[in-house]
């Protein structure tokens, strides 16, 4: 039954008619306000800007396109001091997409093991949350949570860039302790209590083995 539901979801997404025109551009002032709140949250939580390492763990590329949009207009996160980095050693947060193929599982563990704390982990997209339509495949682990402790789940196929921003803002406010979905779109001002209870993160252990270079 679950496999049929997954395929029906995939078919529904594939058959959804693409927009005849470019999607509407989000208002610049709203994007600036959201990104500024996120930058302020990072400074309050970390004392500096937030460094993000994005990892594709076997996705179709849809979530990567939305994540890449965060580094371009109208978002341009670097103007607010939020940046993507090339090494997990420099990162505060792993932003992971894809159902986690078996070949990527150990790479994820090693990347997480060499991070300095808080070493937050965010699963972006349906595939990263629970494997999505690929969760029955023997070639995948079935989501990021099967390999690493996850601090935040951002569902969607794919989630919009502003949903990713709202989720990261909720994580900063909660302190990275609650593996729960982000607030609904437009509810980024909600307090941690309004977005769900904060629970201690479980499974926070480092895997043995050599660290990535």
From TrEMBL:
Required co-factors: [4Fe-4S] cluster
Q: Which UniProt keywords apply?
A: 4Fe-4S, Cell membrane, Iron, Iron-sulfur, Membrane, Metal-binding
Q: Where is this region: Disordered?
A: 175-213
Q: What GO MF terms are annotated? A: 4 iron, 4 sulfur cluster binding; metal ion binding
Where would I find the NADH:ubiquinone oxidoreductase-like 20kDa subunit domain in this sequence?
60-171
Annotated PANTHER family: FORMATE HYDROGENLYASE SUBUNIT 7-RELATED, HYDROGENASE-4 COMPONENT I
The family note in this entry says: Belongs to the complex I 20 kDa subunit family.
Q: What is this protein called?
A: Hydrogenase-3 component G
Q: What is the lineage of its organism?
A: Bacteria, Pseudomonadati, Pseudomonadota, Alphaproteobacteria, Acetobacterales
């Amino acid at each position: 039954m679950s496999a049929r539901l997954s395929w029906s979801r995939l078919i529904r997404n594939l058959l959804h008619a693409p927009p005849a025109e470019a999607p509407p551009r989000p208002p610049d002032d709203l994007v600036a306000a959201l990104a500024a709140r996120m930058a302020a949250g990072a400074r309050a939580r970390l004392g500096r800007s937030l460094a993000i390492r994005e990892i594709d763990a076997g996705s179709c590329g849809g979530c990567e396109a939305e994540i890449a949009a965060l580094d371009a207009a109208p978002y341009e996160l670097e103007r607010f001091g939020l940046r993507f980095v090339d090494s997990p050693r420099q990162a505060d947060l792993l932003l992971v997409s894809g159902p986690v193929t078996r070949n990527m599982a150990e790479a994820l563990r090693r990347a997480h093991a060499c991070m300095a704390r808080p070493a937050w982990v965010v699963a972006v997209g349906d595939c990263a949350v629970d494997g999505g339509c690929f969760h029955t495949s023997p070639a995948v682990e079935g989501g990021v949570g099967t390999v690493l402790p996850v601090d935040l789940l951002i569902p969607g196929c794919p989630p919009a860039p502003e949903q990713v921003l709202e989720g990261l803002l909720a994580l900063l406010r909660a302190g990275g302790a609650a593996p729960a979905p982000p607030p609904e779109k437009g509810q980024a001002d909600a307090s941690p209590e309004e977005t769900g209870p904060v629970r201690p993160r479980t499974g926070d252990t480092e895997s043995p083995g050599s660290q990535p270079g």
